[in-house]
Amino acid sequence: MGIISIGVGTCTLGRKQADRDGNVVSETPAKFEIDPAGSCVVIVPLNPETMEQDGPVEVFGDWQAGQYLARVAELIHPNRQINVPDLEAMIRRAAMDGLDLCDYCEDCYMCRDCIVKEWKEDPGGG
């Protein structure tokens, strides 16, 4: 792959409904619509000659920056070590050493969705 496209928009999952006999009675395909205010990020491989989609689309929530940025780095196959620190390993190690990074957080109301909270609660995971 030579080109990837990253887009922001709204992803609607597909749905298939069947009757009791297993016959499909309605079907809605999955779709992605470009929308700067959307809550999804997609990575789309493109054919460099035609600029058409050249493989499956990968969909992420806009909050999953670590996952979609890691995937982009993986797809571009850098020839040198990238300069992105392993924050997960750093946070897990800090938790094992007794440091609670949440003591320094100004967004305490967002704990439910916080990856730091998840990593520090399972410092040996990974």
Low-confidence stretches: none
How far apart lie the N and C ends?
29 Å
Would you tell me the overall average pLDDT?
87
Widest sheet: strand order? 4-1-5-6
Residues in β-strands, percent: 25-35%
Tell me the number of helical segments per DSSP (H or I, 4 or more residues long). Answer: 3
- Tell me, briefly, the overall form: extended
Rg measurement, Å:
20 Å
Task: Specify the biggest β-sheet.
Answer: 4 strands, antiparallel
Broad structural category? alpha+beta
- Strands, count: 6
Helix-strand sequence: EEEEEEHHH
Helix share, percent: 10-25%
What does this structure look like?
By secondary structure, the protein is an alpha+beta fold. It is 23% helix and 27% strand. It contains three helices and six strands, in the order E-E-E-E-E-E-H-H-H. It has helices spanning 65-76, 87-96, 115-121; strands spanning 3-12, 15-18, 24-28, 31-34, 40-46, 58-61. The strands form two sheets. It has a four-stranded antiparallel beta sheet with strand order 4-1-5-6, covered by helices on one side. Helix 2 (87-96) crosses helix 3. The longest helix has 12 residues, at 65-76. It is extended. The two termini are 29 Å apart. The model has no long low-confidence stretch (mean pLDDT 87).
